[in-house]
Amino acid sequence: MTRNFTFGIVGCGVIAPTHAGAIKQIPGASVIGAADVVRDRAVEFARKFDISSAYGSVEELLNDCPCDAVCVCTPSGLHADVAVKAMRAGKHVVIEKPMDVTTEACDRLIRTAKETGRKLTVISQHRFDLGTRVAKQAIDSGKLGRIVLADASVRWYRTQEYYDSGDWRGTWALDGGGALMNQGVHTVDLLQWLAGDVSSITAHTSTATHERIETEDIAVALLKFANGALGSITATTSAYPGFPVRIDIYGTEGSLILEGDRLREMRLKNGEIYEGERAAAHALSVAQGGTKSVEEEAVHATGAASDPGALWGDSHRDQIVDFIAAVNDDRAPLIDGEAARKPVAIIKAVYLSSKTGSSVSIS
Known about the structure:
The chain is α/β, with parallel strands linked by helices. It has helices at 16-24, 39-48, 58-64, 79-88, 103-116, 130-140, 160-164, 179-183, 185-195, 277-287, 314-329, 337-356; strands spanning 5-10, 29-35, 53-55, 69-72, 92-95, 120-122, 147-155, 198-206, 218-225, 230-236, 246-251, 254-259, 262-268, 273-275, 360-361.
């Protein structure tokens, strides 16, 4: 960090404290403004996180707050509208997942970033988790050989009260989908990042256990990857009491399992075996030439399988650090608009396949 870097936060709901807490962990970074359509909520949020100014709209924040960047923490269907306003006002933008709820909105964000020259990143914080980095390094280096099968499951639980707590939850317009778009988008992102681009999807969805929602609480999809591998995605908010996210990657030379944001195990035909986070930390340290100790690579698992508020800020922090560096160095963030569009396109294809009963190609 070469100077103080300031943020405004728009939307002071469930995920906003994770952004505020992550930014507080970054030397030289601070939050100086908070906005929410419910002004009292912004005032209370600002008081809790020692933020100097609170506003009742994004327009007020953009007109008055001299922040460098805006974190967009609104309902998903408002992400593009808020972020476009921010970029046109000269602010860089961090958007909470998903990028938005349609690929058209994603494309509008990408165009605006290019037109304004502002930096844009979308939170995909689990790419920064230790286990994920080890898995990615192993796959990219060829240790697993050719990927032939890749499966992902998000078997979480949300109560009826969770959906009733906000009139936007479980709606197509603002939530953009149910268990897959809201809870599963991070896992969809990791699956395609690790296993490769998805070329086609056949899927089914249902609303099995919740009332008064428009969207699915169960989604199951069969995938064909561009590299020829096959795979699947299962996402639900109906699996009581909630279980850790799991990603299985199988290659011609070995296999790995990510579970609950950690590397559960990796076994290779050459005899290498990694089990648990300490082994993962050692593997990554060796791959990086021993630049970090095993202890420095220690991470925490999340409890989000059953509690939407139980989110650690460490990986958010790491992604925001990369975002600040991208602004300072005038480079693309590690997760830019084009990368963030991919999981949205996959999820929209799942919904279209379920609706039509046909296989859908990804573009």
